Structure formats: C-alpha cells, structure tokens
C-alpha cells in the first residue's frame, strides 16, 4: 500500500498498487466507454428537457426521468473514486479540466429544469405523476452524497482520455418508445407550425379560401390520427388499411370538388394551388420514395402559387404570406418524412406488449404453422426417380431425333398461304375489355356548357362544335374553355384574358387581349390573333401552333413542360414562316451562377 497527496483537492487518496485487481472498475479500458456514454446521455437529455419546457408530455417526461436516472448511474460508475481502487496516477494530473467542469454544470442545470417540469406536471395531474415526484425529491440528497467524489473526476478522465489508442464506443440507440413519440411530435410540429399559419391567413382572407382551409385542416387531423395509429400496432391488411385511410381521402376529394364547383371564384388560383398539391398527403401509401412524392405534388401546385404571388404581391401582402405558408407546410412535411419515414410509413407497434392494437384494428391472426414433410415417403432410389428417366432420354445422342416428324412444304406457312388465313391470336387489353372501357367513357360524358357568369365566359365539354362564338365581350371579361375536343372558338372584341384548359384538337381565333392567352394541359391546339396579344403562356401542353399578326410581333411566350410548339410569323405575301420553340437546353456553371442556352436538335 502507498499514499499520494492530492495538492489540488487537499485530501489524501489511498491507492492500491496491487496489479491483479478483479474489480471491473480497475480496468482502464472500461473508463472511456462510461465517459462517452455519459456525455451522449447528457446530450439526449438536454434535447428532451428543451422540448418539455415548451410543452409537457407525460410519456416524454417519463423518458426524461429514466434518462436522468441513467445519467446519475453512469456518473457514479465513472466518478466515485472513494470506493474504487485505481492504479498509481502522477500528482501533476490531479487538476479539474474544463471538460469535466462543463459536464457537471450541464447535469446540474438539467436537474434544476427537470425538477421544475416535474413540479408543473404534478400540479396538473397529481394522480398520474405522484411516483415521479417522490423519486425526484430524493435525487438532490443522493447528489450531495456524491459531491465528495466529484473532486477526483479530472484525474480519472485525464488519465484515460490521454490514451488515444482506445476507440470510442458507439453511442446507444434511442429506444422504440422514443422513436414513436418523436414521430408523432414531429407531425404535431407541422400542424402547430406552418399549417397553423396557413389556416390563420386563410381565415383572414375569408371567402372560398377560408372554406377550403377547413377541409385542409380536417385532412391533416385525419392523417395525424393515422400516423399515431402506426406507432401503436403492426401494419394491417390492405382492406383495413384502405378503411383507415378513408377519412383522409374523403377530405382530399372534398378539396378537389370544392375547386371544381367554384371555378368562377375570384380566388380560383388559391383554390387550384391547394387542389393540385393536396394529394401530397397520399405519401402514407407510397413506398419506397414517399419524400419525392410530396415534392412532386408541391411542384404541381407551384404553378398556381406563382400566379397568386404575381397577382397579389403589389395589392395585398397577406396573399403572398398565404402562398409561402402553404409551400412551407409541404416542405416541412417532406423533411419530416425524410427523418422518420424515409422508405415509407413505419408501423412500429409490432413487438410492444404494453400497447395492444386499438379497437378499430382488431387482433392480428397468428402466423400459420410451418408445413410438415413426410420424409418416409421420399425415396432416394435413383431407379424410381422420374428425373433419372428424363436425363436418360436427353443423353440418347443422335437417336433423340428419330421420333421427330418431317415438316413438308405443304405444312410451312411461308410456302402455303392458306395457312395464314386463320384467326388472329388473342391479345388481352391492359385495363380490361374494350366494352368495359367504352361503357366507363360513356358514363363520364357531360352536357356541354356555354354560358356567361358575370365577367366570365364559361365554355365546357364542347365536342366537335366548329361554330362557338363569343360576341359583345368587354375588356374586363375572361373567357375560360375547359375539356373541349375538336371545336373552334371565335372571340370578337377585346377581352382581358383567354384560358384553354385540358382541351384537345381545338382552335382559337380572337381579335385582341389585354393580359394574356393561356394553354394548360392541352393537346394539338392552335390559335390565331388578328390584333394584339402581349403574352402567351403554355404549360403542360403537347402541340401548340401560334399564328401571329404584325401587331403581335412583340409578344412574350412563356412555356414550361411543353413540346411541339411553333410560332407562325406573317409575311407580306400572306404566307407564314414557321419557327419552332426550343425544347432542349444546356446549362453551365459560371462561378456562383448558372448560364442556360437552348440547344439545336442533334437528330
């Protein structure tokens, strides 16, 4: 036995110099693992306490208390030197490092915050948290008993942290209960954050925007219940899964129907922005890439949110904030999916005995027993094996062809045309029979509409009608053509705007417009202007021929996701010169900017 004087702490430590110590605390290889685990537990506990200070959750508070108990246990294992025999340590290493001081201060702050949180929670629900409050009241006394041993913390840490040959242990993974709680709380953060801001701005705008926002709110609440259910039970069958998704899908359908019924609304772009992007909530059915699905839906609605920004940025900033709040909601939803459900919705309830499935789900049937095999009936005799006979027949050599029949000229189809007049082979259609498809298409036929609603002309579901005519139009009128096919529309007079949406093989002839002419989701359409048009917008359209007049040579053409676009320029002879719009581009990086130029077709 030997003695070493600690000059920094002013006390004597009795150190056992025995080499063969059976106490696991005497092994220097174990100390870095305890210290690293302690620091990881403190980091995780700080995050839990920070969340609990914002809003108290009984389940998460229990996790925090258990984690704090683990911190105290790890600290006792690492730093209680009075009951531990250690190898000799040089006197100059007995100094309190900044790392140890910081770790002790963080533990003290966590203890104070956690005590206050437990007191607040006990006042709101005394019966539920009585045991937690009693355990918490005993912790300061235990902490004071350990203060005497904390003075020697730096000596142990300095000695074993100086050994760089020891690799740090991997930190422990969070428990299943913590992941479940964080998944639900993460979705609640979206509902209470950007979605709440979107709802508040929608109610401020009022009208149809506020009515549609109610459906959006119900859709997110239904999905929050679905995500919470996924943390409580295992994945159900497809039939029950569709039944559980029905509340969310009903709200999505209501949002889209509300937009179709209010096409004459002054906030039609607002309604369309939500209607086009709300299918992002279908990410729970997408695997293995739910995150990109949300981004795709966000991009689909961005066409209309850009219209809202362009129309209202100088009129009312509330509408601009409304559009940004909705885009931020979908952006944070994508980040949430990337963090908790990267490859699809996680059903993490399996294996948790304390959390039985909820009543709507019912009990999952046990797996069937493995099939049994009767080994006694299986013979290993090769003479009785049919495969042996097959191989014997294959290995005959040239004699294997003696049973083949000779194909004569009258049996060959390329020499005998009469053999080629038989019935054609049956080909199954991809989506059922032709008759069924025709019946479904016939049931979707709607009556044509040609009416004027205030300042808006509504022309819908016209088919093979070449005599559509809009007369006596005013400069503030809007002409809207929807789902028409094989028809021709003539607009006489000067109007504000003309929109063709989901039209096929239609033609448009007009005098002049004040704002723009727009083609959205169209196929094989053409237009001719007799007067002036400032802007032509083309979006998701395949095939668009634009005949311009001499007064419209200063037109601006904005195209996106479109193909087969041609501009016809007039000549003095009365003919037209055809110029195609570029569809292929090349982008290069120049410093911190991008340069994009169109590329001629290489074909």
Automatic annotation (TrEMBL):
It is found in: Cell membrane. It holds the Pfam family CAP_N. It comes from the Eukaryota. SMART domains: CARP. It is a peripheral membrane protein. Residues 439-581 form the C-CAP/cofactor C-like domain. One of its GO terms (cellular component) is cytoplasm. The keyword Membrane applies. Residues 124-139 have a biased composition (Low complexity). One of its GO terms (molecular function) is adenylate cyclase binding. Residues 124-149 are annotated as: Disordered. The keyword Membrane applies. GO terms for biological process: actin filament organization; cAMP-mediated signaling; cell morphogenesis. Keywords: Cell membrane, Membrane. Belongs to the CAP family. This is Adenylyl cyclase-associated protein.
């Amino acid at each position: 036995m030997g003695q070493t004087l600690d000059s920094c702490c002013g006390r004597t430590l009795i150190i056992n110099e025995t080499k063969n110590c059976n106490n696991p605390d005497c092994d220097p290889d174990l100390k870095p693992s305890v210290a690293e685990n302690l620091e990881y537990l403190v980091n995780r506990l700080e995050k839990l306490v920070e969340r609990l200070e914002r809003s108290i959750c009984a389940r998460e508070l229990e996790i925090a208390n258990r984690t704090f108990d683990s911190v105290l246990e790890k600290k006792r294992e690492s730093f209680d030197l009075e009951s531990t025999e250690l190898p000799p340590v040089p006197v100059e290493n007995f100094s309190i490092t900044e790392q140890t001081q910081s770790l002790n201060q963080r533990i003290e702050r966590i203890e104070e915050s956690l005590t206050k949180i437990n007191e607040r929670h006990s006042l709101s629900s005394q019966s539920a948290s009585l045991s937690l409050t009693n355990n918490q009241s005993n912790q300061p006394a235990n902490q004071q008993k350990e203060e005497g041993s904390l003075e020697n913390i730096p000596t142990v840490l300095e000695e074993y942290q100086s050994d760089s040959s020891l690799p740090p242990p991997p930190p422990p993974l969070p428990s299943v209960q913590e992941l479940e709680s964080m998944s639900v709380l993460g979705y609640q953060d979206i509902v209470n954050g950007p979605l709440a801001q979107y709802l508040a701005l929608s109610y401020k705008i009022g009208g149809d925007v506020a009515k549609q926002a109610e459906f959006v709110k119900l859709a997110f609440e239904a999905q929050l219940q679905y995500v919470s259910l996924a943390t409580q039970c295992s994945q159900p069958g497809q039939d029950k899964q569709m039944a559980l998704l029905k509340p969310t899908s009903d709200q999505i359908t209501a949002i889209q129907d509300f937009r179709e019924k209010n096409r004459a609304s002054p906030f039609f772009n607002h309604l369309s922005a939500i209607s086009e992007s709300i299918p992002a909530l279908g990410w729970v059915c997408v695997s293995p890439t739910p995150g990109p699905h949300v981004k795709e839906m966000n991009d689909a609605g961005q066409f209309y949110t850009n219209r809202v920004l362009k129309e209202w940025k100088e009129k009312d900033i509330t509408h601009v904030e409304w559009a940004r709040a909705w885009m931020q909601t979908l952006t944070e939803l994508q980040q949430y999916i990337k963090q908790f459900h990267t490859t699809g919705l996680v059903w993490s309830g399996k294996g948790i005995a304390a959390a039985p499935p909820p009543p709507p789900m019912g009990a999952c049937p046990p797996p069937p027993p493995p099939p049994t095999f009767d080994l006694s009936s299986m013979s290993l005799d090769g003479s009785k094996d049919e495969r042996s006979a097959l191989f014997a027949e294959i290995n005959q050599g040239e004699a294997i062809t003696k049973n083949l029949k000779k194909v004569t000229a009258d049996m060959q189809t390329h020499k005998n045309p009469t053999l080629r007049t038989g019935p054609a082979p049956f080909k199954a259609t991809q989506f059922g029979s032709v008759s069924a498809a025709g019946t479904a298409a016939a049931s979707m036929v709607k009556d044509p509409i040609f009416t004027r609603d205030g300042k808006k002309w509504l022309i819908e579901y016209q088919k093979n009608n070449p005599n559509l005519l809009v007369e006596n139009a005013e400069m503030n009128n809007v002409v809207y053509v929807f789902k028409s096919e094989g028809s021709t529309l003539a607009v006489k007079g000067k109007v504000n705007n003309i929109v063709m949406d989901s039209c096929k093989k239609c033609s448009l002839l007009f005098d002049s417009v004040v704002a723009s002419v727009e083609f959205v989701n169209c196929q094989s359409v053409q237009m001719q202007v007799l007067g002036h048009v400032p802007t032509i917008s083309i979006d998701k359209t395949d095939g668009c021929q634009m005949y311009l007049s001499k007064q419209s040579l200063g037109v601006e053409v904005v195209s996106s996701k479109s193909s087969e676009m041609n501009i016809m320029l007039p000549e003095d002879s009365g003919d037209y010169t055809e110029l195609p719009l570029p569809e292929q581009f090349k982008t290069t990086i120049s410093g911190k900017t991008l340069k994009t130029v169109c590329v001629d077709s290489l074909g």
